[in-house]
Amino acid sequence: MASLSRLQTIARSLKRNPLPYSSAKLYHPCEATQLASSSRTIAPPQCLPSVPGYWQLQSRRTLILEPATSASESVKLNRLSDSDSGIVEVCLDRPGAKNAIGKDIAVPTVFCAGADLKERKTMSPSEVQFFVNSLRLTFSSLEDLHIPTIAVIEGVALGGGLELALSCDLRICGDDAVLGLPETGLAIIPGAGGTQRLPRLVGKSLAKELVFTGRRVGGKDAKSMGLVNHSVASGEAHLKALEIARDINQKGPLALKMAKRAITKGLELDMVSALELEEDCYEQLLNTKDRLEGLAAFAREAETQV
Fold first, then answer.
1. Is the pTM of this model over 0.70?
2. pLDDT per residue as tens digits for the range 171-202
3. Residue 160 falls in the annotated catalytic set
């Protein structure tokens, strides 16, 4: 996989300065750059595209498409321009190790093969614990980004590779993708968020089956169980992710930030508290320049249709 330190740096940077008002991110495997195994990202795992910047309405939104990369060269950041300004791609590019996640991290047919087991064998138990804890915190940082993120999965996304994708808001894969958490076969468990994010996505019972058995699933099955949002023809996941990213990029960046907060944090609360959170998020948008410009644009469009 790409370099963990590089991923941490990107996550911290985007969190501090998310491309002024970024709203979406793409992470996926790209022919040229991939973040996790083979992918492009707008904001974390494999390749990430980012979207424009302020309300002009091209404020910056960042969509993540997962890709793969190595050491500082393992993880590459690509900011798209022109009509796609605001979309940032984070790509994993470590072909020799199938975009495996290591201390340093593209393979066209691999999103991310998981942990770099060859490297892992050279680590002491304390080093392994430190690395896994760092990986867990890095994925949590990606998940906490205020902008939407999209993981683009072409090929294999196993172990830490799938955990990387699970930390994104949306997941797009090719029909020939292979996803799974095989850790129990190595006498360990998913340790970078897999045991917590997977059941929240597909349900407790199915998550237990997938983790207990280490079963691998294809793109179409992943779509049917809710593990990914879309499964498309092989090689077209990046295009689908960009299509969604561009659509998101047209929406108000502050609204996207508040919507993500309301949904993500609301699921952790009881209904009464969650509705109060929604009210708070809504109120923060009432007097924003974004909202006023959006209403003015709607009024102008309505007039032209009369």
1. yes
2. 999 999 999 999 999 999 999 999 999 999 99
3. yes
